[in-house]
Amino acid sequence: MPRYLRITPELPPPRAYDAAIGAGALTRLAELVRDAAPAARYALITDDVVLELHTERVCEELRGAGLEVQLYSFPAGEPYKTRETWSYLCDRMSADGLGRDSCVIAMGGGVVGDVGGFVAATYLRGVQCVQVPTTLLSMLDASIGGKTGVDTEYGKNLVGSFHQPRLVVMDPTVVWTQEYADMIAGSAEAVKHGAIMDAEYLAWIDENAGALRECDTDVLTQLVVCSVERKSEVVQRDPYEQGERAILNFGHTVAHALELATHYSMSHGHAVAIGMVAEAGVGERLGVTEAGTSDRLRTSLERLGLPTRIPEDISAERVAELAAGDKKSRAGRLRCVLLERVGCVAQPTAAEWTWDLGDRLASLL
Ligand SMILES: NC(=O)c1ccc[n+]([C@@H]2O[C@H](COP(=O)([O-])OP(=O)(O)OC[C@H]3O[C@@H](n4cnc5c(N)ncnc54)[C@H](O)[C@@H]3O)[C@@H](O)[C@H]2O)c1
Ligand SMILES: [Zn+2]
């Protein structure tokens, strides 16, 4: 007979954190960081594009305010969201002697947030992290909820960890320097928040699509605030994606397949826009989703200038094959979030949030 010894660590309770959102929030970064994440030294992690546009200036301001900051940068883009970038950053921090009393500040889009967050989760078994998202997508989605990680040749986000930030600071005016198409692509995740949990929010996005396309600061700020509220409701209830948090993956089964099929030349936001319309259509064909939902989402997304159709050179079979390799499949079965109608996700059983599509996806697309 084996002997059973029960080990009961006293784990720290989950810690609340603030998202500071508003035009000019970055000018208060030093003070906000000092309060929420006091540390001996700060590793300011960014990518080469954001470095020149914003991070060098912010670094000077933080140093000017008396914080000790080491600045680290890596090439921009999804192809650099890798273990190689993660090890490069960890090694540089080791060489510079950053200790456990350090804090990572990840300043950039979702790629920097995911890699920087994963460095914070793992460096010396975990140091504090502050997220400073600089793309619309990372403000209204990626920076909230503590998911961190890197891609591998087998798929997206396959190696990672949950590591909640101590603070998130978002200045919506920073997105003005984004490529316009990239900025608008981020709004796909806001449409997702409306589609899965709040039909009124989706109606508000429809009404304000024109102002969003013109980068109106007040409307952008409102969009970020509303999405952060919606997303945080879900991640607060289910921080480790044991159940309900899976609804945030609506559209993402197809989206991740499209990103893989295009070797990441299709942006995440565009892939999510197309993925949501496709998955709403799958739900309609299965009789799970109210008829017309897919068209309704298509109208909202097209009003924002987002793509909604799978490119003709990518077959349904290829999408299904790549989706089956995605980690959202369980026990080798392909699973997908389906809507009941706009604003509400359909559950196959009271405890489940994703539907088993088995090998039927290609025939349902
Ligand atoms: N952790 C999560 O919960 C979560 C959620 C959604 C998405 N994500 C991840 O986020 C990533 C996508 O994020 P993204 O769309 O921000 O992409 P990204 O980080 O690659 O940024 C896109 C491009 O914009 C540049 N950029 C960033 N900020 C800029 C600015 N203010 N001005 C000019 N250029 C700027 C970047 O250098 C990059 O070239 C994906 O890897 C996705 O998997 C993570
Ligand atoms: Zn996403």
Q: Low-confidence runs (pLDDT<50, min 5 residues)?
A: none
Number of strands: 12
Bound molecules: nicotinamide-adenine-dinucleotide, zinc ion
Q: Strand order, main sheet: write it out.
A: 1-8-5-4-2-3
Could you describe the largest sheet, including whether it forms a barrel? 6 strands, parallel
Question: SSE layout and pairings?
Answer:
Layout: E1 18-21, H1 29-36, E2 41-47, H2 48-64, E3 69-74, H3 83-95, E4 102-108, H4 110-122, E5 128-133, H5 136-142, E6 147-152, E7 155-162, E8 167-170, H6 180-197, H7 199-207, H8 209-213, H9 217-237, H10 252-261, H11 268-285, H12 293-303, H13 316-324, E9 334-336, E10 338-341, E11 344-346, E12 355-358, H14 361-364
The structure holds nicotinamide-adenine-dinucleotide and zinc ion.
